């Protein structure tokens, strides 16, 4: 096997990671959060979608460590997990615009 090929389990987890980006709503949420921290209501309003739809997609993004959250009373605020997420979005956009 090629020395540069990652281990089989790493290839599997990488393919699962990229599946998260296969949903346009999740991509839109990430772009909204690129501008800063938002609560579910604000994200739903920005995307003109239901709060439950946004919550469902945020759960997937959270499970894959693409977003993080903090609680302030009853309100939960979401933000991008780290700079890697911005880089992934920027690289993907740059690639398709070539």
TrEMBL record:
MF-aspect GO terms: DNA binding; DNA-binding transcription factor activity
Swiss-Prot/TrEMBL keywords: Cadmium resistance, DNA-binding, Transcription, Transcription regulation
GO annotation, biological process: response to cadmium ion
Top-level taxon: Bacteria
Every HTH arsR-type domain range: 6-98
InterPro entries (alphabetical): ArsR-like_HTH, ArsR_HTH, HTH_ArsR_DNA-bd_dom, Metal_resp_trans_reg, WH-like_DNA-bd_sf, WH_DNA-bd_sf
This protein's record includes keyword Transcription: yes
Short name of any one Pfam family annotated for the protein: HTH_5
Keyword DNA-binding: yes
NCBIfam families assigned: HTH_metalloreg (NF033788)
Protein name in UniProt: Winged helix-turn-helix transcriptional regulator
């Amino acid at each position: 096997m090629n020395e540069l090929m990652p281990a089989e389990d790493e290839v599997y987890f990488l393919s699962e990671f990229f599946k998260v980006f296969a949903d346009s709503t999740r991509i839109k949420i990430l772009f909204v959060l690129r501008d800063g921290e938002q609560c579910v209501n604000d994200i739903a309003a920005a995307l003109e979608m239901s709060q439950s739809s946004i919550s469902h997609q945020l759960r997937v993004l959270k499970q894959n460590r693409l977003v993080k959250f903090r609680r302030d009373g009853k309100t939960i605020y979401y933000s991008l997990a780290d700079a890697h997420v911005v880089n992934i979005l920027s690289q993907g956009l740059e690639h398709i615009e070539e």
